[in-house]
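mind reviewing these tokens:
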Amino acid sequence: MELPNRSSSDIRGDLEAGTGYGTVSAFQISAVFACARVLALGLAQVPCVLQRASATGGHEPARDHPLYDLLTRKPNNWMTSLELREWIGFHLALLGNAFLFVSRDSKGRAIELIPLPQGSVSILTPSFGEVTYRLNVKDQPIYSNANIWHIKGSSWNAIDGMSIQHIAARAIGLAGDLEDFGSQLFKNGSKPSGLLTTDNDLSPEQRASLMTAWNAQQAGIANAHRTAVLGNGLKFQPMQTSANEAQFIESRRYQTEEICRIMGVDPMMIAQSVGSASYASVEQKFLAHYTYTLAPLYERFMQSAEVSLLTLEEQRAGYRVFIDSRTITLASSNDRAAYYGAMRQNGLMTINECREHAGLERSNDPLADKLTPSANLFGPTGTGSAPIS
């Protein structure tokens, strides 16, 4: 998509007026796009599968259900599972809502998920506790939530999610003003503006001609550091305001952090420096990012998918949508080794379960499917050395 060339005043007007250019304008602000990308990729990068209750009391992949392939591989003819969840993440991050059309088979099972563009769906006033939807296309029927999967962000009215681009319009607009200021500053060769003065009287035509000639020779990066030759009593008086004196850098940093606060993303996640940090503090920040940003996003997606894509009978039968976030919470090899070792020694996972989780082939050893906790868990009897069925 080609982005229009729009100034910060255009962006501010679009955001405050709620015009169709609002989303594109907001994404032109680097901090907004970076935060939205962190949220979108955070939702997209983790495995998402359909599971059902197993005979042993746990859960197993429901590979024979049509929804399994929709969630893990191919939701429609032109997208992958990662691409669809990334699309959902971007829409939730900025618009607070994501709408998808759900095609179902004769048994009521979802067989295709089609993302609906921004502004193409109208939410109708609920009656008797049911929300209905209408596609903004001529002669379209009214759909129930059986055919429209509506994923809501944080909501005030419990009907639709709150749009960050509207709630934070002024903060985003100010960030755009700062980017515009920096752009104009460097276009002028990082020099502040100044005054041309003379004791002679100048007509309006002479003033305009002088300004045109001066800008042609001195304005812009290409003319930076050129020597100006003045005649006829002209004097140049520079304005004594620099980027640092106007606290331009500090203002941009603060506004970036402000957008991060609004969107719920730690500044560290968009490479915004917030001072010196040790490895331990960075690790704790990432855990905080997972706990307070990603985990609620995962739970929001899973619950919405279950109630919107599964029938009531399937939900009661033990089907569930599961996002496996262990791939990001156990990022280092040392963490994974310690985790698997502890799970085996405490009798919580078998060797094959550890191997499957690590992406390795299952072992043919019969003991690999047995729980083998450490002997000291059972005291001096020694029974801990025997596998548990």
Summary: Residues 1-190+242-329 form one domain.
